[in-house]
Amino acid sequence: MEISKRAISNIPSSFRRKPKTSEEVQKIIKEIDISDASDIEAGSLIWQKKNLPSSDAQKVSGNTKITGVLRLGDANFKIDRLKINRNTYFRDEVFGNLRWASELRNNNPSLEIAKCKFKVSTNVKNLGVLDLKISHDPDRISDQHNIPTTIHWGSVMISYLKKNSVIGKTLNLYFPKKGLVFGIVIE
């Protein structure tokens, strides 16, 4: 069997351009983040975690792997002099208005997840507005004091936390003043 040669069209010159470098892409992302972040104000304080542990700060020793998450426990945070219920407070009250979906996991029941925007800053740097995933595992609710809800730090925050220690600092979580952008301030 013989296949005859055919002419191949050339790529139009309008498609031939040098792709953006990763530095150019990062510059565009920073410009977007800065402009988005300047328009957003934090609302009321809805949770505070004092003395951040090394696991939440993504600083672990030895061969231990980082978790990549902020555990949303009660942290002795009180509303009207009553300690919050970590099993329901974050999923139902704080993030209850978000669009939640099920995420299938291997060998485990489904996990509830939602995506949310957070304006993140430290006392040193404004990290801009980040899209972070929130997960809630109803199976972790038991009498063993497990924490069912976490915020997944994402690549930007993990990169920042690897370079900067926030161990022992205080993390404040704020409701959006308007819209759906929550605030995280680490100081």
Shape: globular
| N-to-C CA distance | 73 Å
What would the CATH topology be?
At1g16640 B3 domain
Helix fraction? 10-25%
Strand content range? 25-35%
Which residue ranges are poorly predicted, with pLDDT under 50 across at least 5 consecutive positions? 31-39
**Series of secondary-structure elements, N-terminal to C-terminal:** HEEEEHEEEEHEE
Sheet of most strands: 8 strands, mixed
Number of helices in the DSSP assignment: 3
CATH architecture classification = Beta Barrel
How many DSSP E strands?
Answer: 10
- Rg result: 22 Å
CATH class type: Mainly Beta
Domain module tally? 1
Q: What is the arithmetic mean of pLDDT?
A: 81
Secondary-structure-derived class:
alpha+beta
Model description:
By secondary structure, the protein is of the alpha+beta class. It has one domain: At1g16640 B3 domain, CATH 2.40.330. It is built from three helices and ten strands. Strand 5 and strand 6 form a beta hairpin. About 5% of the residues have low confidence.
